[in-house]
Specification:
Blueprint: E1 2-4, E2 7-13, H1 15-23, E3 45-47, E4 57-64, H2 69-81, H3 91-98, E5 113-121, E6 129-130, H4 134-144, E7 157-163, E8 168-169, E9 176-182, E10 193-198, H5 205-208, H6 239-257, E11 264-266, E12 297-298, E13 304-305, E14 307-308, E15 314-315, E16 320-322, E17 327-329
Parallel strand pairs: 4-5, 4-7, 6-8, 7-10
Antiparallel strand pairs: 1-2, 2-9, 3-11, 9-10, 12-13, 14-15, 16-17
Amino acid sequence: MQNLRHFPVIALSLTFFSILAFSFSQNQQYNEEKNFEGSSDLVNLEYHMGPVLASSINLYIIWYGRWNAKHQSTIRDFVYSFSSPAQYPSVADWWRTVRLYTDQTGSNITNNINLSGEFYDFKYSHGRYLSRLSMQSVIKNAVTASPGTLPLNYHNGVYLILTSDDVQVQDFCRAVCGFHYFTFPSIVGVTVPYAWIGHSGIQCPGMCAYPFAWPAYSGRPPPRTNGGNNIMSAPNGDVGTDGMISVIAHELAEVSSNPLVNAWYAGDNPIAPTEIADLCLGVYGTGGGGGYVGVVYKDSWGNGYNLNGVKRRKFMVQWVWNPVKRRCFGPNALD
């Protein structure tokens, strides 16, 4: 998380990926097992008495910029997969770990995430460079512009701003791949949780679309699922979009468990918390960590994935911290 002019934003940091580039072992393969999945002795994740998103979530997507319809379809299907049945291990099974987090009344995070509206900001209402704070103005535009205005839902709404690959965002690719926070009444009119994720396909796939791309300065790519040194192929055919999928999951998990930055996080400073997905960056399967994704599956074309979704979709999504097992966990775990 960064502090920008006293405007804190909960961010998916790129520091981890810098570490990855120098920690990769030449002999590692994706079917190896190593115990790098977190330690209950080192993690002090605490509840700070704030709310979690226990009511059904009405998710509103703001498509900022010019989007490829095929990429939009992939993302929609991923969102639909949170609350729809699919072959195990599924996206809905992955969300069950997030649901283990409760508020002070004992209410769990909801299992209902509904795509309730979309807004197409294809005219770049706030330009092709966005500051972090300007994200709130993008939301304000989406709930006031016409036609196609989104409702301003302060009861159970979450707003997801997705920027196209030609939009630059403050600190994108340098320090963050996505972030979440909540709106200020002085800008939007009410307080609602939101998240932003950028499409990194052109700007920094090696930073924000791991493991489908590798940082240019690393000197070599990660191995494939079946060994070797080729890049792992993206299961839905686009590195930037498939990379976004995991960041979207990351931010939805954290905005649900820490929507007002006063619920679930580790550390004493809410301006720079470590949240439930931050603890498991880069871990996608058993043995993951230190630049190795862990044990994952491969489809008939050799593309890597660890979750199933609707319409026979395959997705690669990082694990999150399981408060019961006290370690990073996903439904594709071998133990």
